[in-house]
Design a protein that fits this description.
The complex is a heterodimer of chains A (116) and B (114). Chain A contains no helices and 11 strands. Chain A is mostly beta strands and 116 residues long. Chain B is globular.
Chain lengths: 116, 114
Amino acid sequence: SAVISQKPSRDICQRGTSLTIQCQVDSQVTMMFWYRQQPGQSLTLIATANQGSEATYESGFVIDKFPISRPNLTFSTLTVSNMSPEDSSIYLCSVEGADTLDYGYTFGSGTRLTVV
Amino acid sequence: AQSVTQLDSQVPVFEEAPVELRCNYSSSVSVYLFWYVQYPNQGLQLLLKYLSGSTLVKGINGFEAEFNKSQTSFHLRKPSVHISDTAEYFCAVSRNSGNTPLVFGKGTRLSVIA
């Protein structure tokens, strides 16, 4: 299965600023998925990023707030813009993978964001 | 679109007792089903998954789940729980066509009492 390197692992940011989260995958993947996990909550899909096209956002998430880049098949970034304390969450990227033996999803280790 | 309902937000159970965490899904197409565990302040860990074949799936740490297509359920069971099983458990679903994200349920908090 794929290995994902996600950075930063955590950050404390001032309100009104932006943070860019990076995910690097060790193999080429068609889709990358970005999730948010608010404190004590489940994972909510923010958007799906396909290389060469604009990301597809889920209801309640907009590009101006969460711009995503997908410049190639192994890399993606998610920016959390104009942050407020309500954006304090764990953000994760994920890829879907299938090899000759198995199928599943791999998750990055997450970025724990605190907005003060 | 797919959706997942985890019927219990919290399940307290005594140590060495059996437990069942319930999960129902909704989908108009065939699906893959997953259970993940998240220990406090840790990442997601895959417990087990159903892709096809036998409807009884065995996973790590003594957990198993049964896929029931007619009832659209994928309940997680363990015959005897340990204190160390205290964690948040998430059921998730994806379409079986590929290039689709996982959709998660809201989670069930399992608390094992000594």
